[in-house]
Design a protein that fits this description.
The protein is mostly helical. The protein has nine helices and three strands, in the order ααααβββααααα. Helices cover about 45% and strands about 5% of the residues.
């Protein structure tokens, strides 16, 4: 009886040892799979690699932790303007999926704006491009013709919310808030467009300067007339000619449904240009009656 018990205990110990060896073999195999050649826990740099270790649930939970949440530093403090890309700009794709903000950042050679100021400006440009076919055409022209702005910066000494210096090719904003103002962004990027289209607008520093300014403001006013939004900037609202100017905008756009041609504009264009320089004395320069608004017409009738 005693010998039978000893033999049974021996068999039991052998079975336990075999089970232990089997478990050790499985653990070793798991270590070989999970750890790298140096015996260290691997550093997963992409979500594809990370999913091998812990599969992402199919619940669509965006809070599931990925590699970007591990040892993440505060990167915003080290960002420069060069770090801002189109991916940082709010999506302005149209319903057909067409990206209307392509390569917006490429027109700036240099920027002295803060990261937030530049991102606000890019977001405003993207928003206007998605809202207005005019502004989208304007920016497509700048991009497709490789028009570059030498620098963009804040300068509190300028007298207006923004100013494009055509001699230095620098765009100035008076303050941070100006980069988000529709009027400012639309008008001054139109001046950048004019500068390329007319092969330089600095030659209109005297005669013709009023033409350039009125064309830019008319572009803004037509843009808002067709968008059924607040208007206008070419003629002051307290002017006795303001209502007649609004009526003219309705006529040339067929109440916001059509893009005006020169045949439609021609009848009253120089008439309202004359009113413009009288009502806005800061733009009271000699009118060039041979200078048609060709830059405006190209955008309106493209």
């Amino acid at each position: 009886m005693e010998k039978g018990l000893k033999r049974k205990n021996k068999v039991t110990r052998i079975c336990l040892l075999l089970i232990a060896f089997s478990v050790i073999g499985q653990v070793t195999a798991m270590e070989d799979e999970l750890f790298n050649d140096n015996g260290e826990w691997p550093s997963y740099e992409s979500e594809d690699e990370w999913i091998v270790v812990g599969e992402r649930p199919d619940s669509g939970d965006d809070d599931w932790p990925g590699p970007d949440s591990w040892n993440r530093d505060e990167e915003e403090d080290d960002l420069t303007n060069e770090d801002i890309t189109r991916d940082d700009v709010e999506d302005s794709s149209d319903k057909d999926g067409k990206e209307s903000s392509k390569d917006v950042t490429n027109i700036f050679i240099k920027s002295e704006l803060t990261v937030k100021e530049m991102q606000d400006l890019l977001n405003k440009i993207s928003s206007l491009m998605s809202m207005s076919p005019y502004f989208e055409q304007l920016f497509n022209y700048l991009i497709n013709n490789y028009v570059l702005v030498a620098n963009v910066k804040i300068d509190g000494t300028i007298s207006s919310p923004a100013h494009f210096n055509s001699e230095t090719n620098v765009l100035y904003f008076q303050h941070s808030g100006a980069v988000t103002l529709d009027r400012v962004v639309i008008e001054d990027f139109f001046h950048i467009y004019q500068h390329h289209f007319y092969n330089g607008i600095d030659k209109y520093g005297g005669k013709g300067h009023s033409n350039i300014e009125f064309e830019a403001k008319l572009f803004y006013d037509i843009h808002y007339s067709l968008s059924f939004m607040d208007c206008c900037i070419a003629i002051p609202q307290d002017s006795e000619y303001f209502n007649s100017y609004l009526t003219w905008l309705d006529v040339i756009t067929n109440f916001g449904t059509e893009y005006p041609s020169w045949e439609v504009l021609e009848d009253k264009y120089y008439y309202f240009l004359e009113i413009f320089i009288n009502e806005r004395p800061e733009y009271n320069y000699p009118i060039d009656y041979t200078l048609r608004p060709e830059a405006l017409l190209k955008l309106l009738n493209k």
